[in-house]
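Dear colleagues,

I hope this message finds you well. In preparation for our joint manuscript, I am sending the Solute carrier family 26 member 6 (Cyprinus carpio carpio) sequence together with its predicted structure, so that both groups work from identical material. I would be grateful if you could confirm receipt.
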Amino acid sequence: MKDKDLRKRVPYHIQRDVLDELGVDQVAEKSDFKISAKEKFREAVRFKSCFLSFVPLLTWLPRYPFRENAIGDLISGISVGIMHLPQGMAYALLAAVPPVFGLYSSFYPILIYFIFGTSKHISVGTYAVMSVMIGSVTERLAPDSDFMIPGNDTNSTSLDIVSRDAERVKIAATVTFLSGIFQLLLGLVRFGFVVTYLSEPLVRAYTTAAAIHVIVSQLKYSFGINPQRYSGPLSLIYIIIATVVSWQMDLKTEYGVEVVGKIPSGLQAPVAPAVSLLGSMVGDAFALAVVGYGIAISLGRIFALKYAYKVDSNQELIALGLSNSIGGLFNCFAISCSMSRSMVQVSTGGKSQVAGAISALVILVILLKIGELFEELPKAVLAAIIYVNLQGMMKQFGDIRSLWRTNKVDMVVWVMTLILTVLFNPDMGLAASIAFSILTVVFRTQLPKYSILGQVPGTDIYKPVEDYNQEIPGIMIFHSSATLYFANAEMYIDALYEKTGVDVAKLLSHKKKLEAKRLRKEKKAAKKAKKEAKKRAKEAVKAAEEPKFSDTDESGEEAEANGDVHKLSVKEPKDVGAVEVGPDPDTDTTLPQAIILDLSPVNFLDTVGVKTLRNIYKDYGEAGVQVYFCGCQRGVVESMEKGDFFNEKVTKSILFSSVHDAVLYCQQGNSEEVQYILMSYTHTRISEVS
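The corresponding structure tokens are as follows:
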């Protein structure tokens, strides 16, 4: 038999009272118990004070499966360690510090992350984007112009490279230390969700733009030239121009090939950060903290999902914070994780951070024994290594095409992030990109989809009437796809007027005008009636004073004989209270019996939102239309309570848990004893085949 023959619709019945918010609280026996902020703080502190959770190494290392993982981690660690050597020295050039400091940055932070990190597969260490951001800080605070010394000739100057490099190393280490402190603090207060403001299109566009900065910064090594360095906004454009001019107009100057230079053996002693520089690099340090964490946690979650384990976002902040802050004391520059090294670590059999520790030992051997073998390595070779490592980032330009098909707003975020980061420095570009991304979210909440809902016949399902054309006579159900707050409150009201066809503001205004016109006519008619009454009274008095008798009037004689007096009749004024005024063609419409506002998409209400709902309820009520609210989340109800929405006249009886409850309440004449039997719920099951 075919599948459709196996399917069978099974009806089932539900019978219950129609419940408003008060009824739901009674039936569900709502509890008022709440965990105090003090208890929450104690729980958080108690958890974070647990040493095993703070040092994950103590949890997983005793259970390390040596036989299963040791060989794979060893091979993976050696492979990644070999990659650290050229990448560390190459990315040191991006940070504008001597290459040997890239090796230091590939040793100390990796050991720290090995102890405190929770990801098993990412390879932390030097990263191109972070290095470029460091380089923008070092070149801004220690430009070449500050280290020019007079030469032997009268008008000649020369660059004091030793002093410049020493100052730049100090700057790089200090900003790295400060960024680590930021990460550590954010992790301790469990602020790991800050990375949610870095959407995937934003991160990918930002890394692509940073790759462009990297490529431009390496042009001087590729072409063997030494153009003037620029920093700040539009610095990328100035670099490009200076490189082209220096390359084309050689000015008959012969350039020698730059090499890595001296790689001292051994490790350096820790050095305190330059406290005097901290104030000038707060923004840069925070940007480094956010970007480094965002890249690491994004890649860590990818591997965690693939290999079925969990990465603690807050512990990752702590691990990276300690890696950078401690690394800064040993003249390292800021680190994150590298996609290329992580892929090599996984593909060569790496199963845990033991592979990372082994890679750090490889770097230690290089620093202690064989570092001098790489002193004559040309910097152009390091530039070529950087170009190769950036090819993955440059392929991200393909995102534009895919985003155009799937989500054009995300595509705009991608393009604007690229433009802003290319035109400005990476730190300023990141801030501008995040601001633009948040603006798109605000913009989308200001342009939600508004609709009137209708009932699908025989069900409790409600859909937009423009799609299903099933309106409910006398009842308007208004639905908005976004939350209600100060930025879209006015548009919410305008859409409500438009969709319901009832502009309450105009209706009430016209009603007031009619009332004023009626009062004016009543007053005028009353004055006229009073004047006519006085006139008739005078005429009556005059007629009474001059009676007329007729000799031949038999009836008059009889009347006089009978002693009857002359009777006067005065006409009463007409009723001046009934004044009819024609309808206003702009507001002449049939008012609905009730309007139901579906607030299920509303996840919070600010003071403007509460005031908006209060005004809607009040204005429609004055126009004779009852307003009900349904689908209110707990936070929304609490906001209404705190905003003094409810009082003796307005209670929670106007709140309903579902649209269907509110509709049935309206249809049954607002009876509190309404029950319904819903017979059309269906679900599908596969019947047994004999």
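For the figure legend, we might mention the following. The chain is about 55% helix and 10% strand. Residues 249-255, 549-583, 670-690 have pLDDT under 50 and may be disordered.

With kind regards,
E.M.
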